[in-house]
Target: TIR domain-containing protein
Amino acid sequence: MEHEQIKLCVHHREFDPGVPITENIDKYMNKSWKVVIIMSNDFARSDWCQWECDYVQERRRRQGKDACVLMMLKAIDAYHMTSGIRSLLHTTPYLRYKKGIGEALFWQAVVNTLRRPLSVPPMAI
Model:
């Protein structure tokens, strides 16, 4: 979804080979303007995503709620819901994706949210 001046960090493209994954995550999250979290059951099942979720919570404590952008790709089933994800969802506005329904509006909202200064919270749809 790279768009105009928005560049995403994609692990298989940006991460430095031979460097531990935690160092790569730390390096690129610190270089990033905002962190995008795409929520789904696959995300909730991943130990690495859980670690990243905790990392984002710490970043939000330092930089404010709008330091990350949450996108709900698919609702997370109750048995995959962790306390960390639940806390993030209860404290952060998120954009909900629905295939075929308002997709253009959704992606425009994502771009607008990514462009907003950190002092302006994202708008939930």
User: Anything to note?
Assistant: The chain has six helices and three strands. Residues 47-63 form the longest helix (17 residues). The chain has a mean pLDDT of 83.
